[in-house]
Amino acid sequence: MTDVEADQSPPIVSVSQLHKYFGKNEVLKGIDLEINEGEVVCVIGPSGSGKSTLLRCINLLEEVTSGYIWAAGHEMTHPDCDVDAARRDIGMVFQHFNLFEHMTILQNVTIAQRKVLKRSKAEAGHMARQQLESVGVGEKVDAKPSQLSGGQKQRVAIARALAMQPQLMLFDEPTSALDPELVGDVLAVMKELATQGMTMIVVTHEMGFAREVADRVVFMDGGVVVEQGPPSEVLTDPQEERTRSFLARVL
Ligand code: ADP
Ligand code: MG
Asked: Where do the ABC transporter domain residues begin and end (predicted)?
């Protein structure tokens, strides 16, 4: 791709004037956000500021009240949007892993490939083993989730998402439920994914990860984007008082 073409490629995520109410509670108050292919964006902000709701609106796990969302080639807010097709292209990793406890690790990573992508058992199994290997839990294929540590479970959840070959990955506090000594392994997997060029939106409290891996940090508070920019600016020299006081509490 020439530089000219790169400059012209449209954003992979475009959110415009996104509003979300839960009842009378306006949780997202007009979010505008564009993310380019290959970009790693870390979303930070206090608890209750709307970070999870923003991620969940992007793949329509929450109904959008008003506004426009384009993601991974799909106009999510179009009334005729094929949500299943869109979610195939958008991987999501949750704080609490959300593995199927009664299935083996291999089954966890093959089921959506089989059911949604209609891959053969052999094909899905091959992809699963490859992805599990790449996140360092290749030897766990026959185990049940209950036999794994939190860090291993989260790496399985990442492998499961990657096996669908998504164009975009959403992470909602992927390390917040982990014992401190297990956080590093999961962050290392995410860093490697970023290095490979995956487009990622990561809600996180891991400021070290944001500083090192993010191309851009978005600070949210009270349902709005207060400020955003490269980590070297937002985390080191924030322009807004709300960002400064948040960082003073977490850094
Ligand atoms: P964050 O992820 O930044 O902590 P959330 O997006 O989870 O924030 O929540 C933002 C606000 O929306 C909070 O006030 C929360 O109580 C409210 N909220 C989130 N999910 C729901 C829901 N399903 N029903 C009602 N209120 C909700
Ligand atoms: Mg949250």
From this structure: 13-247
Alpha-carbon distance of 38 to 22, in angstroms, equals 32
Global pTM reads 0.95
CB-based contacts of 173: which residues, under 8 Å, 6+ apart? 52, 95, 203, 204, 205
Burial (CB count <10 Å: 0-12, 13-18, 19+), residue 46 = middle
- For ligand 1, whether the C-beta of 24 sits within 6 Å is no
The first and second tokens of residue 82, run together, are: 């094929």
Tokens in use for 34?
């564009």
In the prediction, which pLDDT does 7 show?
60
The pair of three-digit structure tokens given for residue 107, joined into one six-digit string: 């089954």
Measured by CA distance, the residue closest to atom 24 of ligand 1 is 22
Alpha-carbon distance of 120 to 117, in angstroms, equals: 9
Q: Is 152 left (phi over 0), alpha (psi -120 to 50) or beta?
A: alpha
ipTM value, please give it. 0.99
Percent of the chain with pLDDT over 70: 97
Distance from the alpha carbon of residue 76 to the mean position of ligand 2, in angstroms: 21
